[in-house]
Amino acid sequence: MGRSHFKQAIVIGSGPNGLAAAIELARNGISVRVLEAQKTIGGGTRSGELTLPGFVHDICSAVHPLGVASPFFRELPLAAHGLEWIQPPAPLAHPLDDGTAVLLERSIDETGETLDKSDVKAYRKLMKPLVDDWENLVADLLAPIGIPRHPLTAARFGLRGLRSAEGLAKSFFKGTRARALFAGMAAHSLLSLDERATAAFGLMLGLTGHAVGWGFPRGGSQKIADALVSYLRVLGGEVIADSPVETIDDLLSPERAVLCDLSTRGLLKIAGHKLPKDYRRKLENFRVGNAAFKIDWALNAPIPWKAKECARAGTVHLGGTFEEIAESERAPSKGKNPEKPYVLVAQPSLFDSSRAPEGKHTAWGYCHVPNGSTFDMTERIENQIERFAPGFRDCIITKKITAPAELERHNANLVGGNISGGSQDIAQLFLRPTRQMYSTPLENLYLCSASTPPGGGVHGMCGYYAARRVLKQK
Prior knowledge:
alpha/beta, Polyamine Oxidase, Chain A, domain 2, 7-stranded mixed beta sheet, 18 helices, 16 strands, globular
């Protein structure tokens, strides 16, 4: 491939995708400057003392299975720049009302030991062939749509992943435990579990747990951004915080590419006056998707789970049975706040002592609500934790509540509290936000955020593929 005609690039936004784009461009000889609107860098990978001094909380994302799995991150020397992945003994626990828990273990066989006996063979049949071909599969799944490099593996995944989570779970599993485990993983989609392609989210997260684990950075998610910035600077790149961009008018030039790690609304804000009407309309019609309502807790003790094996897992899914979780995830799609929400809990301080003072702990959790919801879900979230961990409230020293509007104030890409760069329903899963994906009708202007393929998650692949598009520009 010939060298791009660009000599310079401006990247707007320092989230993992913006930093990945900047690194790939800098590795190919382009002079890169990253402009971040906030006073701190990192986008969705920032950490801070949200509650009390000494308690380190992840402000947005906390657990990063796709960060560990990312083909791009894995080829970078991030360990040499301070990034250390912690892998809890079990990636995931899913407690039930009988006082036991289903566990997603690194081993497929050990996971099977926590399922109903009737489902052990079915679970192995579903997961093992794909885990065995993981390296080929992840290369295709974390890539823009096209002819897969490993078509047989991609087809095996696609035949199952393009189904609804409800359809796959009910056809594969007879017992409640495997169905519940799959529901919790599929619900990361922020979609109703009867929608097509929600099975893909459950499969992807289950496979990732077996193949590479659900790791998180020692010291907090900020360490991901810090390592990327450190490496970028070695390559000669520059990162400037507290530098909001109001318009692209003065940034574009024939020898400079501008890449936007922005939501579609963010792109419209700074470039809408220059974009063609039909393209603007497509961006305006890009569906935002459901939101998160998040709480961070400072605790005087670990969460007192009834199912003691939950203490082996970095992530815990709360919501009970498949049917309960499906009902919870159906509610936001109908504009309602769930009565008994599906809750994702991370408990990093069990495995990372740097997160809290000695003898103390942190916990992070959120549920799904309608986009822009103003309803306070605190009591409903804590009721769900108490359901599976009686006495949890007695452990709370203090808490920080982050409703959808505050998520967006902290990071403008989280429009209305959506954390995935826009809805990832089947209509917006592959060609996002338009068929042009990373390119725009405006010469030298590109999009590199989670609003492009392969979508949400801390993996940097949206930025990487946007940068590859730039490098192909002659």
